[in-house]
Amino acid sequence: MSMNDTPSGERIHIGFFGRRNAGKSSLVNAVTGQALSVVSPTKGTTTDPVRKAMEILPLGPVLIIDTPGFDDSGELGDLRVEQTRKILARADLAVLVCEAGTALGATEKQLLELFHARRIPYVIARNKADLHPEAVLQSKNEILVSSLTGGGIDELKTRMGHMTKDPSRRYIVRDLVLPGDKVVLVVPVDSAAPKGRIILPQQQTLRDLLDAGAIGVVTRDSELAQTLASLKGKPAMVITDSQVFAQVAAVTPPDVPLTSFSILMARYKGWLEHAVRGIRAVEALKDGDVILMAEGCTHHRQCDDIGTVKIPRWLSKYTCRDVTIKTVSGWDFPADVSPYAMVVSCGGCMLTPREMHSRMETADAQGVPVTNYGVLIAYMRGVLARSLSVFPDMKDDVRWLEGTCS
Question: Which domains does the chain have, with CATH numbers?
Answer without folding.
Answer: 8-163 (3.40.50.300), 174-265 (3.40.50.11420), 270-381 (3.40.50.11410)
